[in-house]
Amino acid sequence: MRSSNKNKGPTVTTAWRRKGGFAALMASTLILPHAANAADAEDYELEEIVVTATKRASNLQDVPVAVQALTSKTLEDLNIKGFDDYINFLPTVSYVSFAPGLAQVYMRGISSGGDGVHSGSQPSVAVYLDEQPITTINNVLDVHVYDVARIETLAGPQGTLFGSSSQAGTMRIITNQPDPSGFAGGYDISLNKVEHGEAGYSAEAFVNAPLSDTAALRVVGWYEDEGGYIDNVYGERQYAASGIEVDNADYVEDDFNDVRTAGMRALLKVDLNDSWTVTPGVTYQNQKSRGSWAHRPDDLGDLKFRTFGDEFANDEWIQGTLTINGKIGDIDVVYAGAYLDRDNESSTDYSWYAEYWEGLLADYGYDCLYYDELGGCADPTQHITGDEKFKRQSHELRLSSPGDSRLRWIAGAFYQDQEHDFDLRWVAPDVPTGEDYSPVPGEPLVWITKQVRKDKDRAVFGEVSYDLTDQLSATAGLRLYKLKNSLVGYYGSASSTYCAAQPCLDHPNLDKATKDDGATYKFNLSYKIDDDKMVYATYSKGFRPGGVNRALTGVVAPAYEQDFVYNYELGWKTSFLNRRLRFNGAVYMLDWKNFQYSFLDFSISPLTLITNVGQARTKGFEFDTVFAATERLTLSLSGSYNDAKLQEDYYQDDDDLQNGVVSAPDGTRMPFVPKLKLTATARYSFEIGSLPAYFQGSWSHTGESWNNLKVADRVLQPSYDLVNMAIGVEGDGWTAEIFADNVTDERAVIYADQNNFVDFPVYTNRPRRFGIRFGQRF
Fold this sequence. Notes:
By secondary structure, the protein is mostly beta strands. Helices cover 5% and strands 52% of the residues. It has a single domain (14-777), classed as Maltoporin, Chain A (Beta Barrel), CATH 2.40.170. It has a 22-stranded antiparallel β-barrel. It has a five-stranded mixed β-sheet with strand order 3-8-9-6-7. Strands 18-41-40 form a three-stranded antiparallel β-sheet, with no helix packed on it. The chain is globular, with a radius of gyration of 27 Å.
């Protein structure tokens, strides 16, 4: 019999949300992409949006793929700077975020809550910067958004053209390219103040400089200082076994979670002749953050947290790219290569872990196993230092036939290598540093994980489209791939006899590798009812690589296998009222087979393990509507509904299976999947005196979601609504604006952390923020 409590669990209290006058605000707030120009009053329509979802430049309305695009104008109108901004305007995407540069994204309900571990599963959504993949194993690269042409989201499996980790969808950030036809430049500056927090500012600029009739250089730079709003308040800890008491008086600080982001991008475009163009480029960014993005409203108060050590991250990365476009006869040739080098140094308070486990796990030093110089118990207060180096190179060569032929095709080859070198150290400053205790003599270590993970991917792919009639077209795609995952290095505790016997880092206790291969495919039929209306049907398959497990005990943890998503989709692309109204959407069902899930079970290993647990199914729909109501007013509404559920009982291990202990029964909702997400926008143009002016507002709604798959361990994260507003005037090449973000001062529950068994942090969003912006274009 199925359990009757499959969706029961505690609910995150409403104290974690800030109430506001949302209904009244929304009576006047529906923003969107820009309205048509007032000068076009006699004949206006929505702008055409060009996307590259099929690796060809095509009109959004002609592509039989579920694509949402935030155009350059939309990004500018919405004051979008980075991940935390644009993610709220992509209703097909859900996410979890712990700090800047530490987020995971999900699409169409493909989420088990079991990713984000450096040695675990790869993401289910791929992220691209222009032609190059920048998908990282355990977090999304937080690319600053400025001088960006558009952000595209391709919902559903994209395994044929975009490969591994595109099993649920793909996000693409497309930058503006150099243009030899003329000079262009501009800058934007802004000042803001976060309620309950500090002031912030940003300065951004770009220049497009023709070097000749056939060459141009485009350079972009940015600096942003985001003020903090979380207070680190005074607190004390007492460790039960030792009786040691500590406080955090040295770390108390108001508004301690600030962020500074600086970076630049340079692209050089050279037309070698009428057929060939080469575009080398480089992007660099350094993001320094301090503090925590969590609070504890139920016991410490709103926007209050408590740490017992420094918390910071220094995330620095550089990417070099080379894109070559050319023609051989009438065949288009594209080569896209990139090299990404990312270095993230961090420190995280981990004292809560020692408090929870002291006296329970003597082998890990949380009782009196460690002594100070006087023979008493050492203070077990600890923190984690991280030095993570991530390197990735990718190369793609593809050929494509003319896009206006009855028979169209794309064929290519892809190669990439990823390397993640992570050195994570659990440091307790008071523990002894002798060779009998510390893996690295002289360092007060409790635990160390020093490993190198490598992921290799090779593939050939192709798609063929054929117009069966003037209205009916068919597409078939195939990707053949080979994968390899390896993990080598050391992990262990300071009391390990292995460490006492020999140097830990010179003699790894982990050296594993696994290989996979396979095929993914896509079939599509599209039918054009007329020039403004199309319907399509798609069956597609997406995949994610498998990998190796770690296990410290005598239990041998087998490698985890690939998992697959099978997508059944019916979609439409339509325009009405002389193309003033655009209404696109899709209904779909996705089957997620043999999906990967990470869990922690100390009876097996003190390390996170990954296993393939069964299958889940998502039934849903998504839509995107834009309406140029008048020459002055444009409205939009987009959203998604995803009912994602487990399709069979999940047992954590064989003992639970034999004893009938179900961790998650058939029908359990998948974690981090809100059933409903909506975004509405509106923009209205008018005049102030002789100057053009505008008012805009935006609203996003994220439904409630669970934070864990296991029923006994999860809580329900409540829904939340965010409202932004702005009013501005435009002069001859300049714009001035007053804006307000999160007008109702909502406290979103982005993630309720039940893995922290003592503090129970709640990761939240930025409070209400007011500011001014000024920009000029030349």
